[in-house]
């Protein structure tokens, strides 16, 4: 099962697909039927005929500038460009004739006359459309004399770079040297044919508008940013869309220049964010050359962001630990040992802990970065081998309120739409999410829709990029004070109900009318009016009213939200409030609408689906239900504990209390990612067996006794499930560097503890999931390979999966409008801590940064900085770039400040990508009332000038350094 | 966990259910605790209530009889 060679066609069809009434025409004697609006070029491709082309590619609209694609059409004069000519009924097209051949040859000759003849040493050799086209049109000679050109640096008539190197000359003002400023790709203007595919890709696909064509005619050049900019200093976000679109070596991955053109490719799934982009991993042998977004990927439709596209270097980083290690206690150095010894050591310790402290004294943390199959096994280890329900996942600290809130209102925690749905949206609310940084490819698709005229409402304390950026402007920005989400969402509902903007027919049909009446009475109360809540939320009443009207009256309304909603003491209540808004306005159950949680990590959705939570077996079924336990008891041959287990914060509390002693933590770094670092450290330090299973010695490993090396997503088979419930295939492209894939390691541990597990391949694990979990009943690897991906539920009634939820009825029957009373968080500002800190993330870095920090992505974000309003900075004597101390009642840390009015006065903001900053030393142990999801987004803090790291940071670094010592393996 | 933290958590849950319409707030509160609190957390809560329930919302104390005894 080593290689999965893609069988699916992803060739360039020249122009984008269209939808429309069928039109039949004849091309080179063959009849072909295509949707109205399709170009003649694409229709020809459908008929199996490729028309030569240079400036057209199917990721962007045709432009018609190169004239290589000319054809003859009967009854029409001249030779129209096939890329810009739409098909017509009965049209008769000839793609080859002596006339068009002559034109094409002439065009190519002109192009080549201003192109260096370095093909043999060019990094795009074998992967260049200019080369291909020269061949295709039969260009055999260039009759132009050397003259004015863009490629010869010497200006002496050299025909190639190789030639120019051997010449001396006083220069060519048209020659621009290669721009190597971007760490991942180069721009070599000498090879540019000015087809503008890159410019259009940056606009249409990515939506950044970083590129322009400067100048006219022979003077025109591609330019990133302003006159003084290079790619790095421009607005470019390094998504790679232009590189993908470029037909020549002008925009080219540095890795290809270094390693050569790839010879095979494997389709797999990005291991970063919850968008779940499909990629082709392109390789030579087992050496990865580049990752190219896969056109048939249904989440990304051929687009990508800088993380998935370029930031895979961590998989080969020297920091990766490839040998298992153990130690008696955490003040000792690590000892490298064999797998057998490490697993034996771990199993023995866990068993003896359970003997001494009881069955429930050990537990697991599953990973939102590992595959479904791996997660399933880790929770099975807790339930079927440890015999308790002490299993949790880092989704606890991000989207657990989504599970609870949507479960209560709709009957399932599932996001309701697929990403394609955004193409049908008329008005979008983005609340507590920053898609351009957190979910970039979704953001590009959203921006595309906004440019087509959809309206946008942003509810966020910060002026995120979506509020205003190139060709995008939010209709309304509600800059609320952190911690007042429920008040704002309820006030929106107040306006909708009191102004009679709700969709009564929908509510009568799909919800419980009596519950609605109760809800309407609650929400109509004066205390929920925007005027009454304005003082509290900081959102001007009139702005809020207008936003509510825009949403309720604007056609298809969709709500997208992120951790700015969930990570609050009222996170679950806000999720319910969002569900209320969707139900009130009838925005559920069709394309273009819905409630869409944007999941953080790649497999947050999957890790929740797979029963990682301590109260739920796979498929979100409570452990108290005997019929559910019976299913798994029959499959596993064990008795399952009917009591809910400990959640991560509860595990740490119990550890400090001395009743929780052992932890197997797969692919998570709770010491860096969880709130109140000191408390996490105390909990870990109190345990007697901490097993960390990861790629790197992460921060948590400072407190570990056993380290098991993990495998990257390139080294194993399995599935990830993205934010649209889409199960995507992860395919092994190389052997695990440490010897075992993660699922095999969990299996070894289970076996060492006495279990009779015997899985030979992840497909067998998926088969077990399908046989025990109704929403996965129809899922098999064969089926996923056949369909490309599957959105669960997938079963007999939905054999191809379910793109949209709640069509025609809610999963729970009637939708339930929930009363959402605002309750202020206990985390309040006061004289000692007068500012509110909120946290977030940045495009180039991912989560705790363990992966992205080990790539050139750090070029964009070397350290975490504190955003502070100039006014707040001034009164504290803080200037741009100063080191400041950030203190809360939990702790203090230092970092650099940057002054910006993106945050309001009274609010400061930072990211948590770097362990040196330890932003979570500051965050408190307050959490969501229903799920214990920590309140990351609101912490009362003070900021003051500082001249260096705090004592805590220094002590922490010292401990970390001590703890990372490794002794070589004994002979 | 510290008694203060447990009291805060229990009160947060009580505060939500208190605002809900209907007359089953006690049952819904207790069901939430039974569904999500691990036995040793419920033990700590019940012991705290037995010892007078300092700091707890009245609803929590009233619902005590509906919280299931942890099973070992
Ligand atoms: S990498 Fe992306 S953002 Fe940068 S110029 Fe190319 S298309 Fe635009
Ligand atoms: S850089 Fe590439 S895509 Fe852009 S205009 Fe030049 S040749 Fe065309
Ligand atoms: S990080 Fe997210 S948006 Fe970027 S390529 Fe990966 S899945 Fe796509
Ligand atoms: S491909 Fe049609 S004009 Fe360039």
TrEMBL record, chain A:
One of its GO terms (molecular function) is NADH dehydrogenase activity. Residues 952-964 have a biased composition (Basic and acidic residues). Residues 21-99 form the 2Fe-2S ferredoxin-type domain. Residues 99-138 form the 4Fe-4S His(Cys)3-ligated-type domain. Coiled coil: none annotated. InterPro entries: 2Fe-2S_ferredoxin-like_sf (IPR036010), 2Fe-2S_ferredoxin-type (IPR001041), 4Fe4S_Fe-S-bd (IPR017896), 4Fe4S_Fe_S_CS (IPR017900), Asp_de-COase-like_dom_sf (IPR009010), Formate_Dh-H_N (IPR041924), Formate_DH_asu (IPR006478), MoPterin_dinucl-bd_dom (IPR006657). Pfam families: Fer2_4 (PF13510), Fer4_7 (PF12838), Molybdop_Fe4S4 (PF04879), Molybdopterin (PF00384), Molydop_binding (PF01568), NADH-G_4Fe-4S_3 (PF10588). Keywords: 2Fe-2S, 4Fe-4S, Iron, Iron-sulfur, Metal-binding, Oxidoreductase, Repeat. Residues 263-319 form the 4Fe-4S Mo/W bis-MGD-type domain. GO terms for cellular component: membrane; oxidoreductase complex. Residues 183-214, 226-256 form the 4Fe-4S ferredoxin-type domain. GO terms for biological process: formate metabolic process; respiratory electron transport chain. Residues 943-971 are annotated as: Disordered. CDD domains: fer2, MopB_CT_Fdh-Nap-like, MopB_Formate-Dh-H. In the C-terminal section; belongs to the prokaryotic molybdopterin-containing oxidoreductase family. This is NAD-dependent formate dehydrogenase, alpha subunit. The lineage of its organism: Bacteria, Pseudomonadati, Pseudomonadota, Alphaproteobacteria, Rhodobacterales.
TrEMBL record, chain B:
It holds the Pfam family FdsD. InterPro entries: Formate_DH_dsu. This is NAD-dependent formate dehydrogenase, delta subunit.
């Amino acid at each position: 099962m080593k290689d999965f060679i893609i069988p699916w066609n992803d060739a360039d069809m020249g122009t984008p697909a269209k939808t429309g009434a069928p039109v039949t025409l004849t091309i080179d004697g063959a009849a072909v039927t295509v949707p109205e609006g399709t170009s003649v070029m694409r229709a020809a491709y459908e008929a199996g005929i490729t028309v030569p082309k240079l400036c057209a590619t199917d990721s962007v609209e045709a432009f018609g500038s190169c004239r290589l694609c000319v054809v003859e059409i009967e009854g029409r004069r001249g030779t129209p460009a096939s890329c810009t000519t739409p098909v017509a009924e009965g049209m008769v097209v000839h793609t080859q004739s002596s006339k068009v051949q002559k034109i094409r040859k002439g065009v190519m000759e002109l192009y080549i006359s201003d192109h260096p003849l370095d093909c043999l040493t060019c990094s795009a050799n074998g992967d260049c459309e200019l080369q291909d086209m020269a061949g295709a049109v039969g260009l055999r000679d260039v009759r132009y004399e050397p003259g004015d050109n863009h490629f010869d640096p010497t200006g002496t008539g050299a025909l190639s770079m190789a030639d120019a190197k051997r010449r001396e000359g006083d220069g060519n003002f048209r020659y621009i040297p290669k721009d190597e400023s971007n760490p991942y790709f180069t721009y070599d203007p000498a090879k540019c044919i000015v087809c503008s595919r890159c410019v259009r890709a940056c606009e249409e696909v990515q939506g950044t508008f970083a590129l322009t064509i400067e100048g006219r005619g022979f003077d025109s050049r591609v330019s990133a940013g302003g006159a003084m900019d290079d790619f790095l200093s421009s607005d470019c976000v390094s998504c790679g869309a232009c590189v993908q679109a470029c037909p020549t070596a002008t925009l080219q991955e540095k890795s290809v220049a270094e390693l050569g053109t790839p010879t095979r490719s494997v389709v797999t799934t990005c291991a970063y964010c919850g968008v779940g982009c499909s990629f082709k991993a392109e390789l030579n042998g087992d050496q990865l050359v580049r990752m190219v977004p896969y056109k048939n990927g249904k989440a990304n439709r051929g687009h990508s962001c800088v993380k998935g596209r370029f930031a895979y270097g961590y998989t080969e980083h020297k920091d990766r630990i490839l040998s298992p290690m153990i130690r008696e206690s955490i003040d000792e150095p690590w000892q490298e040992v064999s797998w057998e010894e490490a697993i034996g050591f771990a199993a023995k310790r866990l068993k003896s802990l359970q003997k001494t402290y009881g069955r429930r004294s050990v537990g697991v943390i599953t990973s939102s970065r590992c595959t479904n199959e791996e997660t399933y096994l880790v929770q099975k280890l807790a339930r079927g081998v440890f015999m308790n329900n002490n299993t949790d996942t880092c989704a606890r600290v991000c989207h657990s309120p989504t599970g609870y809130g949507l479960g209560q209102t709709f009957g399932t925690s599932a996001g309701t739409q697929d990403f394609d749905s955004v193409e049908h949206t008329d008005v979008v609310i983005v609340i507590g999410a920053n898609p351009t940084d957190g979910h970039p490819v979704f953001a590009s698709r959203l921006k595309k829709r906004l440019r087509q005229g959809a309206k946008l409402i942003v509810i966020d304390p910060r002026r995120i990029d979506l509020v205003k950026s190139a060709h995008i402007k939010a209709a309304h920005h509600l800059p609320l004070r952190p911690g007042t989400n429920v008040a704002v969402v309820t006030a929106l509902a107040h306006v909708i109900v009191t102004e009679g903007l709700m969709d009564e027919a929908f509510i009568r049909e799909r919800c419980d009318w009596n519950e609605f009446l109760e809800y309407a009475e609650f929400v109509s109360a004066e205390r929920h009016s925007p005027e009454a809540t304005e003082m509290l939320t900081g959102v001007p009443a009139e702005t809020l009213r207008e936003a509510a009207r825009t949403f309720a009256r604007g056609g298809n309304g969709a709500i997208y939200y992120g951790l700015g909603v969930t990570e609050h003491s009222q996170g679950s209540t806000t999720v319910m409030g969002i569900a209320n808004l969707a139900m009130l306005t009838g925005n559920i159950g069709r394309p273009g609408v819905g409630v869409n949680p944007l999941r953080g990590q790649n497999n947050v959705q999957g890790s929740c689906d797979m029963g990682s939570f301590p109260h739920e077996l796979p498929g979100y079924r409570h452990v108290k239900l005997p019929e559910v336990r019976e299913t798994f008891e029959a499959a596993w041959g064990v008795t399952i504990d009917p009591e809910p287990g400990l959640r991560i914060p509860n595990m740490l509390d119990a550890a400090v209390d001395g009743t929780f002693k052992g932890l197997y933590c797969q692919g998570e770094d709770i010491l860096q990612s969880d709130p109140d670092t000191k408390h996490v450290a105390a909990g870990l330090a109190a345990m007697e067996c901490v097993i960390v299973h990861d790629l790197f010695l992460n921060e948590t490993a400072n407190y570990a006794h056993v380290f098991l090396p993990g495998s990257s997503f390139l080294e194993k088979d399995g599935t990830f499930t993205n934010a649209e419930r889409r199960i995507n295939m992860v395919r092994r492209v190389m052997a695990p560097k440490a010897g075992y894939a993660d699922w095999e390691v969990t299996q070894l541990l289970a076996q060492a503890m006495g279990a009779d597990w015997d899985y030979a391949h992840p497909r067998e694990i998926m088969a077990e999931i399908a046989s025990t979990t109704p929403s996965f009943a129809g899922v098999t690897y064969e089926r996923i390979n056949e369909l490309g991906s599957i959105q669960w539920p997938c079963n007999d009634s939905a054999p191809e999966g379910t793109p949209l939820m709640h069509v025609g009825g809610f999963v729970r029957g009637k939708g339930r409008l929930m009363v959402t009373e605002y309750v202020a968080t206990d985390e309040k500002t006061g004289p000692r801590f007068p500012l509110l800190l909120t946290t977030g993330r940045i495009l180039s870095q991912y989560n705790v940064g363990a992966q992205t920090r080990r790539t050139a992505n750090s070029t964009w974000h070397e350290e975490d900085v504190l955003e502070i309003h100039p006014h707040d900075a001034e009164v504290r004597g803080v200037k741009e770039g100063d080191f400041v101390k950030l203190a809360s009642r939990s702790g203090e840390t230092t970092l650099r400040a940057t002054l910006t009015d993106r945050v309001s006065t009274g609010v400061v903001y930072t990211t948590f990508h770097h362990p040196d900053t330890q932003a979570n030393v500051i965050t408190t142990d307050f959490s969501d009332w229903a799920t214990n999801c920590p309140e990351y987004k609101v912490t009362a803090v003070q900021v003051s000038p500082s001249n260096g790291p705090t004592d805590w940071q220094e002590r922490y670094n010292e401990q970390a350094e001590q703890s990372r010592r490794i002794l070589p393996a004994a002979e | 966990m510290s008694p203060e933290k447990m009291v805060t958590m229990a009160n947060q849950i009580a505060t939500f259910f208190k605002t809900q319409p209907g007359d089953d707030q006690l049952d819904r509160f207790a069901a939430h605790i039974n569904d999500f609190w691990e036995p040793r957390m419920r033990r700590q809560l019940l012991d705290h209530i037995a010892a007078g329930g300092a700091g707890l919302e009245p609803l929590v104390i009233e619902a005590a009889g509906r919280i299931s005894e942890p099973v070992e």
